[in-house]
Structure formats: structure tokens, C-alpha cells
Amino acid sequence: MKAIGIDLGTTNSLMAVGGGETRILVNRENESLTPSVVSYRKKRKTNEGEIVVGRQARSYAAKDPVNTIFSIKRLMGSLYGEEQLEDIAKKVSYRLADPPEDSDDQGVKVLLGGKPYTPVEISALILEKLKRDAELALGEPVTHAVITVPAYFQERQREATRKAGELAGLKVLKIIDEPTAAAVFFGADKEKERHRVLVYDLGGGTFDISIIQMVSGQYQVLEVSGNTWLGGDDFDKMVVQRMINWLIDEEDYDPSKDRRFLGVAKEKAEELKKALTVQDSAEIIAPMITKTEDGQLLDIEMEITREAFEEDIQPFVDQTIQLTEEVLARQNLTTEDITRVLLVGGSTAVPLVQNTVSELFGAEKVRKHVNPMECVALGAAILTEYYELTDEGATDAANKSTLMEVTAMHLGIAAVKGDHTDEFVPIIPKNTNYPLSEPKRRTFELAEENQKILRVPVYEGLNPNASLNTLQGSIEFPLPEGLQATTPVEISFNYDANRVLTVTVHVVGTDIVKKERLRRGRVVQQPKKQESLADDWREELQPAIRAMQHFLGTYGDYIDEENRQEIGEALALGEDALANENRVAGDKAVRLLQHKLIGSGVASQLFMAERVMQGADMEATRELARGVANLRSAYEAGDTSKVNSLSNALRAQVALQIAKSSSIGRVEDQKDLKGYVRERESKG
Known about the structure:
Elements: E1 3-7, E2 12-17, E3 23-25, E4 34-35, E5 38-42, E6 49-53, H1 55-60, E7 68-69, H2 83-91, E8 110-112, E9 115-117, H3 119-138, E10 144-149, H4 155-167, E11 171-177, H5 178-186, E12 194-202, E13 207-215, E14 218-227, H6 232-251, H7 259-275, E15 281-291, E16 297-305, H8 306-330, E17 340-344, H9 351-361, E18 366-367, H10 375-384, E19 387-390, E20 393-396, E21 403-406, E22 410-417, E23 420-428, E24 433-434, E25 440-446, E26 453-461, E27 470-478, E28 488-495, E29 501-507, E30 513-517, H11 536-555, H12 561-580, H13 583-598, H14 602-612, H15 618-637, H16 640-660, E31 677-678
Parallel strand pairs: 1-10, 10-11, 12-17, 14-21, 17-18
Antiparallel strand pairs: 1-2, 2-3, 2-4, 5-6, 5-7, 8-9, 12-13, 13-14, 15-16, 19-20, 21-24, 22-23, 22-26, 25-28, 25-31, 26-27, 28-29, 29-30
Helix pairs in contact: 3-4, 5-10, 6-7, 6-8, 8-9, 8-16, 11-12, 11-13, 12-13, 14-15, 14-16, 15-16
């Protein structure tokens, strides 16, 4: 039996083996990179369908883009109704399956060969190929793996990755953050050195930033942050948009709805991006890339300079730098405190990215000799050596380096605070080292007299509204009669090295103690309501509709046409749900409306800033008001570059103020206390 390290990437995947000389394994095509692509094709002679993976699938994309799945990593753990999902659906060549009408499982599925597949199943096909190819390269069975994920993946995304590995026939030893794996590889020969390493990880679909302390072969993650919707795919989309604009200008034809065009254009964009890493300009030549309604075949023959490409992607690179500076500020560090910077992920090969990071930290600190495409898989392979593999299972090996990770999000519960019934109360704060030496505890109290049920929904996230975070599970049980509203309830969380969350609920003064290990990571819906509360969805939808109507009336001049249209569709869906008593449609409308309140560009920035001002101190209010006025002026003047810069600055101000106060950004409260506990008023 053998264990390998796997970097399951958005665009490409790699595998490596440790022990002795840690090395990258080549696949059966004798390549180190396996495209993370799956296609369904029909054989010419028999017309039978078959699924192909990797290079073969990628080559087939131009012929049948609708049946070619790429960037599936971006959909891991996704739910129907999420705002980012709508954007992806418009840009990819394949199709998403329609959401189920009456199912509690709202996990996204894609269509391949006319059949729906979950992202877990598609990822399992990629992992299965990697497993078979590794066995061919090693000449022995591969049974175990350490698989890497973005540091900012939520638990349901991590669990989806674990399930994909198991479905592929692998026993998953550990799901490890990509930046941490890269740091392990970097530190493999530096056990006597001390470093504070910043890992800048820009892959195909995600961006992660991590700060890791390395001392004598021990690794302590100080903080992780990032954006799971930012990566090289966004660079590619800008190139694809230039191709669309070229056809509109030259041929008076818009191919943006042609799925075959989108598939071929993405491949051409990736080729151009690579060419521009070593050239000042490059050509895109694509014969017969699209067909007009009257059957005319159109070609593309255009040139794009590195300068134009960098101008397009500058806002994305700026976002990564902003996130990096925020992480440093939260750790009270400066760039001088960082001794090494690791560039990880294929998108860091882009010269603009390398130059921008070097300007921030100093070129001498940036480790460019470390292969950014391979270091993650190599680090994962080193981590496989931390385990002893036996017929009975895998156990931690003795005398191996210590690895302490941190939580990327808060872990907490929904509770009542004042009149608000959707308060998110963290129990394990973001950036807490785990495994925990002892459980984290907080004491609450019952929310009302003679409470008949106790409900403790557990969430992961950063939003002060519990319901806008990711539900991990819920502990519910009946209470005896006669308990007072002030009855203390102690809730403790324990979190082990395998990311298993154990929740204990103790009603103080009674023998009621509930202890559960939550089945974390699965797609979980909101806690089930009592039958008597079956109509509560209307009480959530109606305020959401009113809030959006107010939003449109106040900030409508700052909403672009695309968002305005999507908001109109969400409002129509909500009104129709109310008229036809359609709870499923109503729940979806609520999610869409809530996302649009915070996802409509400049309008949402102004909305959030002006909401935040209501609870801010005088100095913060002045700063926010100045930011709002400047952003309004830049928008009205049509200065796009200045709008982007001011919008990012205002977003940072809002985030800082939200961190100071958990009372911002709430939706209208419901009267029902839902059986939740109440957060205790602070004394003194």
C-alpha cells in the first residue's frame, strides 16, 4: 500500500510521492499536469458514450463544449441560488441541472451526457485517473492520499473534497490547505531555520493568503484569508471578453451565448496568458470559432499586448494585494516582518503578479525558484510521511514535525440578542489554532419563560447574521416545563486535528447534557420549523421584498443594467411565490434578494456604508461619509478606474466597522424566538 499527495486544482491537478526523494509523478500521458477536465463523448464506430478525463477530455472540448466540464472545483459545495453560481452559469460552456423543486438537497449539479452529476462525482473521476496513473508510475497499489484544498474553503467544500477522494477509492489521510502544504515543502530542508512565511497562492479559481511561522521543523499557521471566487479563470474571462468585443466590432456579431465559442475561447485565452508571460504581445487565431444565425462561419485573428492584458487584470491583482495588506494589519505585522514570500499557483507566473508582489515585499524575499505549480503537491506528499499505513488503517507516525493549523472562519451558533433572532455568536473565532488543547465554552440563557424546545443551530462564516453563514448542523431537544428565561445554558465546541467538531450543550442546574459530533460539510438546509410555524417563510420574504424595493428607490441610479434585471427577476419570483403559496420559490427569492443587497456593486457599497454609519462613532462616521461622497462623485463622473479604487477603499472601511459591531447589516427580525438561546448581557 502506498500514499500520495494530490493537488486537486481548478485548472490542472498534480500528484507526488514522498519517502526518500520526494518527487512529482507523471501521468500515463507522461505529463506532470493533468487537466482537471471531464468530457462525455460518443465513439464513432459504435456511437456508445464514454467518459474521458484529463488531456483527452480537454482536447475534446472544442468539438463538444456542452459535454466538457472544467473548473468544477469552483462548484464544490455550492448551492442553487448563490450569486456567484449565476455568474458561472453564464460564462461556462456546459449546463447546470435545474434545481429540484421539492428536495431539501439544494446542492448544485452539472449535466454531462444528459445526466446530472454532482461536483463530488466529477472530482472523483479526476481523482480516480490520478490514482490509476500513480499506480502505473509506482508499480504498486495506491491506497491513501493527502489532498489539498484552498485555505479559504468552507467545511462543506472540504468535506465534498474528502468524499470525492473516497468515491475514487482512496482513503483520505488529511485534507490540508494548499498554502500550508507549500510551506511544508519549502521548509523540508530548513529545520534549523526560523522564518515567518507569507504564502501568496493564486490558482486557477481561488486566491489564498496565509502567514505561517516555521521554527525547528514545526509549522504554526497564524492566519488564513482569501477569496474562493478569484483566480486565473478571471484573467481568462477578460481575454474572452476581448474576443467577444472583437467579433462585435469586426463582424457585428455577439457570440456570448454560443457555448461552443465559450469553450474554445477559454482554451485560447489560457494559451494567450501563457504566451504573454514571455512575450510583449501574442496573437489569437481561431478559425470558424462561431456561427451566426444565418449560418456564416466567423474567424478571429487578433493581437493582444501584454500592456492591454495587464490593464484588464489589474483590478484582480489589486484585490489580492488588498487582502494581503489586511492580513498583515490584523496580525500587527509589516512587510518587514515577513522573511520569505512563496508564490504558489499557476497564475503567479503572470509577470504583473510577480512584479506587484515583489514591489510590496522586496524582490529578495520572493522565492521564485520554488516551482509554483508543483510545490503544493510535493508538500502534500511530505505530509503522507506523517502517517504509518497498516492493514487496520493509518496512524500518526512518531517523531514527525508538528503542524498547527487555524480556522479560516468563525464557528458559532445562532442566538437571540435583544430583539434580533438571527445573531451569529462565534464560539471558536476565526484564526484559532487547532487541534484545541481544551474545548471553547460560552454561557447563554434560555430566550423565554417556560421554553418548550432548545435549538442550537451551528454555523460557519463571518456574517453577523447567522442565516447568511453556512449551516453545519443543529442540536434540538425538548425541555421540561417550568424553566425560567434566565436559566444558564453552557455550550462548548471541541475541534480536533481532523476538523471534527464536537458540540456539547448543558442546561445548567439540570441533568440535561447533549453531546454530538456534527456531520459537518454536507449540504444542510435551515433548521426544520415546527408545523405551527409553517407559514414563517412569508414573514421572511415580505420584509426582503420591502428592503429591496427601498434599495432600488434609494440606490437605483448606481445599479448597472445586468444587476437591475436580475433584481427584477428576483422580485418577480418573490411576488409569484406569495401569490401561488410556493415556499420553495419563496426561499430561493429570499436568498437571491439578500445576495443582491450586498452584491450589486457600487450601490451595495453605498448601502452598506450608510447602514454602518448608523452605529459608528463620530470619527468613523466622518471617514465613511467622506468615502461615500467621493465614490458617488467618481461614479457620476464616469471615472471607472477611480470608482474601482474608491469602492475597494470603502469596502475596507465597512469591513473594519462591521468587525467592531455585530449589529450591522441585519434583515428585519421575526417575532418567533425559534427555541434559541439568548446571548447574555455583558456585565459592567
